[in-house]
Structure to design on (387 residues):
């Protein structure tokens, strides 16, 4: 059962990592601030991929030996640890520290290759394909130390820097990267324990840990994508919910909008005349501007009467203010469409702040509060009001 879970999580981790790398390749490689993170995750992904038993079996069936596969994985793992350090020290802007890391990384990778080539200190126990390419104790210590150093520094620096950063995407990327580094520390401490005390029963658990670590690495890379998707969903929600209120108000006050509403809400959402974020922003501003204009047509007692009607209708207490505003605006809209003359503005409660939350609360109740005005359709009334 554990082996099946380990294999499933491992394959899922690899697929998510490669998907994240491909998806973020173009934007990340164009921006120096994200390039280091992308390259770091790329090296780690390659090493994690070679750690998967199915991948190893496929490579061996294709003619690759267990020894070269394991050596490649370990060298790439050390490279990944070195890139983690480089990614972290880049925030310090220290050329000397960067140079030290590069020299140390080259020395560690060179040492692994030398130890493998000459088979120094062959006293360790023979490991399977998931172990090192060479059972040398020194080989092990260099490999584990490189990973522990890189990940320990990453945890400290990424967490500290995330507490001081203002960019929300950067904060979450750093924290997710730090969480992945914590899991990597657990993995390599477990491997060190296995080296010293020969506990092969822990290897499936460690494989599960390193696979989950891969998911955190992928998540750190996908934060900008997730953030962009969240903004898109928010814009979609705003546009969809605000549309009936916006459409009715700009028909009454057409001078506040740049373009007439389309005949159906689905058209403005699926085929907007501008990017969805801009559409949502524009509709919010135009709705608020129309509300301010319509305050010249609000009767002095309209808000109180609408509030009483909402109470009699059993409207929830937390929605009473929005229902009263919707009722007062509907009265003003009807007066404007009916040809009433403007008078001194009658300010409505809460309209001085222009809160999107307030507008959406009114929009939620608008269909039940307003009724279709008699006469021509919305598009025709829009054109007639404009001219």
């Amino acid at each position: 059962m554990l082996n099946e879970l380990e294999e499933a999580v491992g394959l899922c981790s690899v697929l998510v990592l490669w998907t994240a790398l491909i998806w973020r390749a173009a934007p990340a490689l164009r921006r120096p601030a994200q390039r280091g993170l992308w390259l770091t995750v790329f090296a780690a992904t390659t090493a994690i991929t070679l750690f998967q038993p199915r991948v190893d079996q496929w490579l061996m069936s294709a003619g690759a030996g267990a020894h070269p596969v394991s050596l490649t994985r370990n060298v790439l793992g050390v490279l990944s640890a070195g890139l983690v350090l480089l990614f972290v020290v880049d925030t310090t802007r220290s050329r000397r520290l960067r140079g030290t890391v590069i020299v140390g990384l080259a020395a560690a990778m060179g040492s692994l290759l030398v130890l493998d080539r000459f088979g120094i200190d062959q006293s360790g126990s023979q490991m399977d394909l998931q172990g090192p390419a060479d059972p040398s104790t020194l080989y092990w210590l260099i490999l584990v130390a490189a990973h522990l150093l890189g990940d320990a520094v990453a945890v400290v620096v990424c967490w500290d820097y995330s507490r001081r950063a203002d960019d929300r995407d950067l904060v979450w990327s750093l924290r997710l990267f730090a969480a992945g580094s914590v899991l990597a520390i657990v993995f390599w401490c477990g491997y060190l324990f296995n080296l010293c005390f020969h506990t092969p029963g822990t290897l499936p658990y460690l494989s599960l840990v390193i696979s989950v670590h891969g998911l955190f690495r992928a998540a750190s890379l996908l934060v900008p994508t997730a953030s962009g998707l969240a903004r898109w969903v928010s814009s979609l929600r705003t546009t969809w919910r605000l549309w009936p209120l916006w459409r009715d108000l700009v028909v009454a006050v057409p001078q506040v909008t740049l373009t007439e509403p389309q005949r159906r809400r689905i058209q403005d959402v699926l085929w907007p005349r501008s990017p969805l974020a801009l559409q949502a922003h524009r509709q919010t501003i135009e709705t608020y501007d129309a509300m301010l204009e319509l305050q010249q047509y609000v009767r002095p007692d309209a808000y109180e009467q609408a509030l009483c009607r909402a109470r009699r209708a059993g409207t929830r207490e937390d929605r009473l203010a929005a229902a009263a505003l919707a009722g007062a605006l509907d009265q003003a809209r009807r007066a404007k469409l009916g040809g009433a003359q403007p008078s001194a503005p009658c300010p409505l409660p809460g309209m001085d702040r222009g809160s999107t939350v307030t507008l959406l609360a009114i929009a939620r109740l608008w269909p039940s509060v307003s009724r279709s005005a008699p006469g021509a359709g919305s598009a025709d009334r829009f054109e007639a009001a404009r001219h």
User: Anything to note?
Assistant: The longest helix spans residues 203-252. The CA atoms of residues 239 and 280 lie 5 Å apart.
